[in-house]
Amino acid sequence: MSEHGKACVPGLFTDDNGARLLGTRCSTCNTPYFPKVTRCHNPRCSESRLVDASFGGRGTIWSYSVADFAPPPPHKHDKPFKPYVIAVVDLDEGLRIVGQMVDGLDQASVGAPVTLVIDTLYHEDGQAYSTWKFKRI
Amino acid sequence: MQDVAVVGVGLHRFGKTGDDVVGNKSVTELCRIAVERALKDAGVSWRDIQAVSAASSRFSGGKGWGLNGNDVVEEMGSTGIPVYNLSAGCAAGGNAFNVGYSLVAGGVYDMVLVVGGEVMPKGMIQTSGVEEATDPEFLRQRCVGMPGPSFWATLARRRMHDYGTTEEQMARVTVKARKCSVGNPYARFQKEVSLEDVLKSPYVSNPLRLFEICPVSNGAAAAVICSAKRARQLTRQPVLVASSAVATIGFDDALPRSLAVPVPNGPSRHTEVYAAVTRAFEAAGVGPRDLSFVELQDNTCYYELAFPEEWGLCQPGEAERLHAAGETLPTGRMPVNPSGGFVSFGEATTAMGVFQICELTWQLRGESGARQVPGAKLGLAQTNGLGGNATAAILKR
Fold it and tell me: Does B129 reach chain A within 8 Å, measured CB to CB?
């Protein structure tokens, strides 16, 4: 458990040595996957050979939007609902990934540099639950 | 393969639970009314229907198993005919049309009913139906919280970056869509809105506003399809199916629809939609510039701009200019959604593919009144849905 609480879904990420998403990579075709897969999904790959891989660090914003209203379940959020920025980020390590931003809309722009972080997503029964997010560099 | 015709279509007007239009009608009642209208329009009786191809709802009826076609058959009279219940997210109606078409084209049946209907829960669509850590859609909603409107909003924002599209230009697409809906007796919204109305409506997901995103609606649609040979016994000028195609997403699709994909080398497009539309063009032996009009899935005004470009109806980045020049109106050179589209109807998710077949049929018969595309000869209908499903159908007169 990190300072930001228990993982909202266990096994997807770690905050032990910096924020990392836990995925896999096919060593035949070099395709990165998050979350983990048990077979390479690339139809042109000659042989599925998956190894554990983690992803994090820097990336740039491909695009972004705002959740101005609370999404329906199974999303969970603190009340009252506070709008958040959603970014689609191209990580330097080769993954295009979606996530919330810890920063506000004024920090979001296409092409802006960000880094992957672990941050609190919601609270339930006095317990904080965390997820991955992006922070503007 | 034999030629297939659409000989009867019917809609129940779209509305919102509790209003004067749909009230508290069940999905089966909405479907029954649409089916009765389609049968009457075709001049056939329920006993003439040899099979049903139905869209499966996740939200209403179907005994909770998506058995909405079985509900329709029970309601109309249990003749013992085969029922195919098709699930494809918001593309289910288009999928049901494709399966019905394929069964008639292949000579399995001579006359098939295609039907879809919905009674939708309030608010944004809950895309994941399960709470399982192995379901990518569950993870996307639990860990991030990115409902449909936010997906569309990231695409709209990217377009603003790529082409300099302004919020006002997007708002003008809604103004045009609602202008088309005036006089359409089946649309949920039948009044024009002003540019100011749209720009004053609140953001649902910045940069997209309430009036720029289709709400959920209750409604139903039905179509009677049969062999062209049988159709000529029923009518002198049947509407023919030039092609019907289905496709799913490609591995190289890099739009943000799941948690993560490999970073692509170039620009991205909706690969499943492109594949379905391209297959439909090829099977019909026509090209994008041959179309008289299209009915496309405008969950948001963004798609009226993006899809015609992705399919080659116009050049990338050209759509705003065509809209501004009135070319996407029914009287323009590239009419888009003369019905008013999803933005005017709201989305009764699994009915939409069949709703489009109804509009295409009326347009090709010249029965569309104020929204008529003059001299319409060839129309394209397109849907896409969760899971990377897409459909396209081309109808001709």
Answer: no
